[in-house]
Amino acid sequence: MSNPFVHIVEPLDLKQPLKKFFNLSKLEDVRYGHLPFSIRILLEAAIRNCDEFLVKKGDVENILNWKVMQHKNVEVPFKPARVILQDFTGVPAVVDFAAMRDAVKKLGGDPEKINPICPADLVIDHSIQVDFNRQSDSLQKNQDLEFERNKERFEFLKWGSQAFKNLKIIPPGSGIIHQVNLEYLARVVMDQDGYYYPDSVVGTDSHTTMIDGLGVLGWGVGGIEAEAVMLGQPISMVLPEVIGYKLIGNPQPLVTSTDIVLTITKHLRQVGVVGKFVEFFGPGVAQLSIADRATIANMCPEYGATAAYFPVDDISIGYLIQTGRDKEKVMCAKRYLEAVGMLRDFKNSSQDPDFTQVVELDLSTVVPCCSGPKRPQDKVAVSDMKKDFETCLGAKQGFKGFQIAPDRLNSIVKFNFEGCDFELAHGSVVIAAITSCTNTSNPSVMLGAGLLAKKAVEAGLTVKPYIKTSLSPGSGVVTYYLRESGVMSYLTQLGFDVVGYGCMTCIGNSGPLPESVVEAITQGDLVAVGVLSGNRNFEGRVHPNTRANYLASPPLVIAYAIAGTIRIDFEKEPLGINAAGKKIFLKDIWPTRNEIQAVERQFVIPGMFKEVYQKIETVNKSWNALDVPSDKLYAWNPKSTYIKSPPFFDGLTLALQAPKTIEDAYVLLNFGDSVTTDHISPAGNIARNSPAARYLTSRG
């Protein structure tokens, strides 16, 4: 059907007349210049896809009239540019496509016509677990176990990557979905089918919002919505309110992006942003790197918004070049964004659009902090951590309480580990993980951790051997620059060697703790602690035996690992005493921002990104060795305990069937407060006493 807005189509460059775009400035509508930048992306998609069937002219008018319509609960269609999936939630989507092919074949059609219409990328990152650490071959051992456990799933996904068009699979061992999206997959501006248009994405993972930090509008959706988009259908969404989050001032020298995001998370939880977009603006944004912005956007689900959008600016353009994208394409993208009024200058307040509400944060007021012990929004200043934890110990059971009896508050349990005697108490750190795309995508905090490790080792500090330490980067680029800058060996000496490339501890794939540690925790009914650079710390997520879990920046993860306890006041108490008897304080080894930036400028270079990503689809030898059939229909295994043909297409006929009546419907689940995706779909271990475990055991 013809598009009613075809009159605003024009070439971006007269030398390339076949490369066109919808020039929104030609709408000559004064409302456009006042729209939030995130809403402009919804508008462009509606105009470009307007066919008076799935997307109507009235939808375009509703979006243009956002200032009025945002309060009226009006639904608008949105067709994202692409879809991103991870293996945990992506397998069911590929299973459905395989089942659709079977159904088309049964009805006498051509099954090869069933493919994603919208480009889809699937990154395998949820399968690897920290079974081994502190060994020279931990990485290889963990990856071998990953393949042993997931062979059937991997074979199925590799079959899918060959059988379907428009579906790219990034093999295991490559990195974490959102970091790979940021560093490699994201286009910022799409160049497809002869048109330029803004990149946008929906993903089957709640932290898809991380890509908002680069100026690509994206958020997490359920599998059914993702499949609908893959099949060319728009998402129907309520036109959202947009909260303008104004950043002013400069961060203090000791503050990290992690501290900033934990501060924002607590603030926006108090403001109340569920179902809304948050759009960042103000001169403070110009002080943040793309990695900093991506860290803030990553934790959008934790503060409850749908999206946390940073419009594209010159820093975004610079990041694309730094990460090895084609310079000519990047400059073309910039010209497009300028032409349609979507390139932002955060220091120019005349560009500030209208917002539903404006809230403000002065970055100079942010202090080093953690969040916990049970929720990401429960921010605690590092200076208050000891006092806060000790208050939580005796407080009534709840988000900030463990209800430990007064006579048990100072319990100590002695235990033996590898022939040496140790003690555990409430607050003892037993897991310290530098993990998660939230932070491992950020060279400043990763190099900060490396420089802190170097200074700690040189000062004679160590980490107790029973603490489960690990480093699971979100991409191979991280290992590259840690190695080239000379800090990797120091991280390894403290136990933070690379154990895998994937989500790992962040999603609960933390693996087993030493038996003697578990026995000591159980014997003393101790509140043991996990410290991780992740984005979620709900009780039971990280590990069943760590009742308290704190989110912290990578340097702080190392600091608490060295201290061995959360019950420390870094300003007054030393991290440790070296062999010479000298007290070493955190301030003695904490690297300055200038030190970190100097190393980052020298070692985080475009060549690294190009080298890592040009071989990303072929670098995993185990993946390459998987032998899968080239058939276009999947050969279902009736004995499989994991991959089954779904019944959705049973009894499907060419003639449209009338909908059947729904009778005796009832509530499946009635949820209380603070129910998370962890409760609904846990990604960690399957409990031995669960029905699922009994079923799997019965099947061998």
TrEMBL record:
Subcellular location, principal: cytoplasm
MF-aspect GO terms: 4 iron, 4 sulfur cluster binding; aconitate hydratase activity; metal ion binding
Needed co-factor(s): [4Fe-4S] cluster
CDD domains per UniProt: AcnA_IRP (cd01586)
Domain of life: Eukaryota
Example of a GO cellular component annotation carried by this entry: cytoplasm
Cell compartments where the protein resides: Cytoplasm
Stretches assigned to the Aconitase/3-isopropylmalate dehydratase large subunit alpha/beta/alpha domain: 62-564
Broad EC category: lyase
SUPFAM superfamilies listed in its UniProt record: Aconitase iron-sulfur domain, LeuD/IlvD-like
Identification of the protein by name: Cytoplasmic aconitate hydratase
Gene: Aco1
